[in-house]
Amino acid sequence: MLTKKEQRLRRARQTRIRIAQQGAVRLTVNRTNLHIYASVISGDGSKVLASASTVEAEVRAQLGNGGNKAAAELIGKRIAEKAKAAGIEKVAFDRSGFAYHGRIAAVATAARAAGLEF
Question: For the chain, what is the radius of gyration of the CA atoms?
C-alpha cells in the first residue's frame, strides 16, 4: 500500500511526463502546512526561470501566516509578474500531485488574473 506522499508523487510524475512531452515551460506549485512555493521551470526542466514563495522576506513582511489562501493569491500574483519580467507568457500548470482545490487553485487563479496563460 502506498503512503499519502507516495500517491501524490505518483500523480505528479504522470503530469510531469505529459508536460515534458509537450516541451512547455511549466509553473510548478508546492505547498506545506506553513508555506507555499511556486516556480517557473524551462521546457527541458533544466533551469528555474522565476520563483516566488512565502519564505521570501518581502512576502513575510506583508503576511503573517504563509499557509492560507490570501498568501497563495499573493504568490500567484508575484510569480506571474516575475514570469512576465522574464519574458514568459504561456505556461503549463503543474500542481505537483496536489488536488486542484484551496491554496493550489488560489495560486492558479491569481496567476491567470495577473496575465499568465495556461
Answer: 14
- Prediction pTM value: 0.92
| Separation of alpha carbons 27 and 41, rounded Å | 6
C-alpha cell at 78: 508575484
Q: How many Å apart are CA 20 and CA 73, to the nearest integer?
A: 26
Residues facing residue 28 across a β-bridge: 39, 94
The per-residue pLDDT for range 40-99, each reduced to its tens digit, is: 999 898 899 999 999 999 999 998 788 899 999 999 999 999 999 999 999 999 999 999
d(CA 26, CA 93): 6
